[in-house]
User: Fold these one by one.
Assistant:
Number 1:
Amino acid sequence: MKTTIDFPEHLLHRAKTIAVQRKITLKDLVIQGLEHAIRQPAADVEAERKARAAALIAALSAGKNTEPIGPLNRDEIYDRQQGKWD
């Protein structure tokens, strides 16, 4: 079946380069990529998403301000931007 897909120019250029390096057609490269994406179980995708979320939470928890600070007035916001807060 034929279809038309509009790729960003930089992505298409890179894909063509990779296809030439692998000595395959662009069509075969796209098919391989789609087959790889389809083979990857949804559970793996969900596990990767959860791992990224856990890493983000860990990074945020490593910072000083882990407790909610509540609403700030204009002067408090300015002081925080200027580094005048504890």
Number 2:
Amino acid sequence: MKVGLLQFFSWTGRVPVSTVYDRAMDRVAMMEDSEFDCIWLAEHHFTTYSVCPSVTLMGTHIAARTKRLRIGTAVTLNAYYHPLRLAEELSMLDVFSNGRLNWGSGRGFDPTEYKLFNITQDDAYDRFRETADIVQKAWQNERFSHHGKYYDYDDVLVLPRPFQDPHPPVYLAASSPDSIRKAGAEGYTIMLDPHSTNGEIQFKRQLYQQVMEANGHEVGDRNLPIVRYVALADTTEEAREIARHSSQWTVGAYINPNKSGGRPREEIPGHERDHSVDPVERYVDEIAVVGTAAEVVDKFKQLESEIPMNYLMLAPMSQDTFVRFTKEVLPRIV
């Protein structure tokens, strides 16, 4: 199993934002000297949940501090970008890092972001996918033309070219069964979200396999990043308290009804949610991987087989969890 880290830049206001960035760079230094494959940078706007509005700028900062660690975007929120500019900036990051970029892109779902970037829920998906197509055309062709719903170009030259040949690995974030069907039908590699239970993730992984094969594509040995929250401590109960505290922040800051914009969630057969369950406890009991180092190792070995999971994108629920995972868990699962 490969392991990457999903890096949030959560800011509570108790310290300067620069301190949040400095602490993240401390993690980067530890990751560079460990078995981590990649640091994946989470883009968010207008929220304290993660103060990282530019993953290309942050990625360039990390590229200058590292030589081995890959740098991933998880994700660029494509609908908010001009696609040609996005292609240029990603290519520059790939050049600056000597070919260490993984490009993950997604639609986003925050109504505040939609409103302030003048995007609607109805057109966000189409903008996301058209932008993804344009970036890949720019990378795959010396010059290209595009005539789409939102953008129209003729004979465009985008420079610089990516360092990687033919271009960086491309991932699409896919959370709902519908988005998985669309991505799989076109043969895209997907990444799966942090807010689903392990059972829901298993269903989505199987659905992706079925759709890929039905459309003549092979999953093969491609990396399929799956985000899992993790809480580690000396005892299970201490780990549960870490998970509970972190989940309260997640639910309060970002995963709450105010962020849904009224869009109904597509239920997964066999995994219909009981809305009477406290959302914080749902994260602790059904989503996060919680326990001692030995318990967490056993759980990931189980998920590796059952889902199956070949790429863990770790979302540590505390700094101590990150340190423990790096020292006590990572060497035993990679």
Number 3:
Amino acid sequence: MRPSGFPWQFIRLFLHPDVNKNKKWLFALIIPAYWLLPDLIPLVPLDDLLFTLLALHIFTRSAQGDLQQGREKTRTAPGENVIDVEGEVVEEEEE
């Protein structure tokens, strides 16, 4: 049984090779920077947690879009061995 839920979905998307690497780097740099920079509300990490959850949500939605675009590209990739066939049903003639 595969683990499910929001944290596992984020981890799978973050490690998936089809997700844009720039998005991964941006996420990996913005969150720690936000936690380390001076807070809007000192000594209360509530704004940090809310920002992190919002960034996680935005990243997972965006990464899922990357995966869907990747699937569409693989379906119609040029040079792929695909045979396009049209057919019709023909009834057999009785003798």
Number 4:
Amino acid sequence: MFGRIGPMELILIFSIALIIFGPKKLPEIGKAIGSAIQNFKRQTNSLTEGLESDTTGPSQPEAKAPPAESANVATQPETKPATPSEPQQKES
């Protein structure tokens, strides 16, 4: 995980952190770092699960609702188109 950091380097880092922050603040900093890492892992897992479910599609197909009758009703009144076989009456 740390690559080439050995036990001596870790002891040096922890001793410097102890000198800088003090013995009272070091446990609080450790808890904050641990909770931040845990939150990060949780968010990345939920993101990857969301992406996987989006790419695979829904597990159960959604039932399509029947079309509503009111959606088929035209908003304008129906007009009968004029046909050429019918004579046009002129009003005088």
